[in-house]
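Annotators were shown the component list below and the corresponding predicted structure, then asked to write short factual statements about the assembly.
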Amino acid sequence: MGEVLKPSAMPRLQSGEPDFDAVYGEHFGFVWRCLRGLGVAPAALDDAAQDVFLTVHRQLSRFRRESTLRTWLFGIVRNVAFRHRRGARRKAARLDPLEGELPSAGPSPFEQAADAEASAFVTRFVASLPPKRRDVFVLAALEEMSIPEVAEILSIPLNTAYTRLRLARVDFQRALARQRGDNEST
Amino acid sequence: MNRLEQDESEVLARARRTFSPTPDDVARVRASLGAVLAAGPPAAAPDPITTATRLARVGARLLVVGAVAASSAAIGYWAGRRAAVSELRERQATPSAPEVNGARPAAAAATPGSPPAAVAEPARTTRTAAAAPRRARAPGAPTAPSPDADSLARELEALRAVERALRDGRPGLALGLLRELDRTMPQGKLTEERRATEAIARCASGAVPLGLDLADEFASDYPHSVYRERVTQACARTDPGAAGDTAGRRQQP
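Structure shown to annotators:
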């Protein structure tokens, strides 16, 4: 794994166009979290992120500034996540044992367990949402974007974005209350 | 803020933390991406966004062409019919009009309800063309390679690149090339080879549990494969609990 991104592999971009390295450095976290939020399994995240950035690499020189870079990226992320979710159903049996978050050295065991539980809960919840509501929830609640920004990225009216987020949050609180009830009863 | 809202923000904050990439994630994907870009993709791949756009454009063009063709046919039929009717009226008005060399004008033979000869002409041409014998291919003439043979050759070439990467001890590159191959040629013919190399590459890259799962699955799907031994050996070398059975390995912490 000693390979590095070779400059020769990068396109020569005209001045004013976004540079691939800069896009990668600045937006990798956004892409990764959105993929995760949109239901790509942890074991498939590397593949999915690579797919996204391969597309970015090919298309960047043709990126028109009619939309923001994040809007464009989210469109790619959404397509890649859909493809990976579909592929994951096929491979579900063999990937199941690796679905859980692997603990890393750092936080205490309690913290790790709580993080893993929260992550699993949110993953399940997001997967249960209708796609339109899911996109809004991922961008607003997980990415903490403002609603006008979410509306712009998804090309939907502002009020629609507010409504979808409100409905998603109601669902989220209900699911959380149910889980808390379950935990307290056991 | 009530307790539910507190819980909500805490759960979301924890999820955000676990969903975020570590510096290792950033570097690993970047290295793998760089290797794939440096090696070059096996074939130009359709991008998820542009594929849909292109299909939409093709569909729109077909619709436009169809509409133009239908309009032209309708206009032609209407114009021809008008011409035939007016000519018939003229003939009826001048019954003694002479026939040239005894031949009746075609339009005169047409009944008012039938389309004129000018409109029917293309149909006759088409029938004539259809009736003409097909030109036989000269014996020994070079034949174009079939798309199947072409795609098989490309798939084989891509798998050779994967094999070279494995031999050079670059499993990350091998996995990247395989992913690219899966993306560009999802319906390839060399499935057995792809799965064998993927299992070997996973084990070699350090993703041993997943590699072992893939190796087990490969062995059960292709019990008589010539690659089976190689896959088993490649994963056994990297498996810390190689002496145990698969179930035992999976239970290890």
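Statements collected:
1. Chain B touches chain A through 50 residues (CB under 8 Å).
2. The first helix of chain B runs from residue 3 to 19.
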